[in-house]
Amino acid sequence: MNTNSTAYQGLGAMLTPDNCALMLIDHQPFQVSGVKNIDAALMINNVVALAKSAKAFGVPTLLTTVLKDRGGNLIKPLQAVFPEQVPIDRTTINTWEDRNCVRWFEETGRKKIVIAALWTEICLAFPVIHALGEGYEVYFVTDASGGTSVEAHEMGIQRMIQAGAIPITWAVFASELQRDWARTETGAALAEILLDHGGASATNLAWEWQLLGLDQAAS
């Protein structure tokens, strides 16, 4: 089997717990209030699930805010995933122009960066395009981000894809890190995240376990 790949093809294009790092940008009250392309509660559910997935697989994760004294602290359910981490607070709209944030990523030694941010067309698109220009492979999480309108979100996505970035969703991120249910050391944690945040799929999974007489807590 040929395992050669580019950033877009082959096994090497897949995310693993050892080859990527996650950056979560500006999930703050002011920015959440401006999200119009997706229900804000659903977006919050998704970004928390994304963060929990990264934590379960040991993926380095950075929390960052912009002007928190005005825009508010990081939303509580997201901060609760990493209660010990103090988000880096920036003045720059483009996170990739903040030296502290870039230094953090450089110190991970990873070449694949996964980003979710508010808002899609600005605080997501700017660092994605900037990091691509510096040779990183960039993946952006569409359903854990949000734009100020449907058009703004979609135009931001198109711009990032044209620049060479790869769109994913939070469930793709989690599933790509797992990739094999035989990896039992992370399978149970992922199942718990899916039950808590998977919407209709979570309901079906819980029902299936009930019909099979399985102990949800032990699965």
From TrEMBL:
InterPro entries listed in its UniProt record: Hydrolase_YcaC-like, Isochorismatase-like_dom, Isochorismatase-like_sf
Keywords on record: Hydrolase
Claim: Nucleotide-binding is one of the keywords in the record: no
CDD domains: YcaC_related (cd01012)
Transmembrane parts of this sequence: none
Any one Gene Ontology molecular-function term assigned to this protein's record: hydrolase activity
Isochorismatase-like domain segment(s): 20-171
Top-rank lineage group of the source organism: Bacteria
PANTHER family according to UniProt: HYDROLASE YCAC-RELATED
Name by which UniProt lists this protein: Hydrolase
Organism: Allosphingosinicella deserti
Lineage of the organism: Bacteria, Pseudomonadati, Pseudomonadota, Alphaproteobacteria, Sphingomonadales
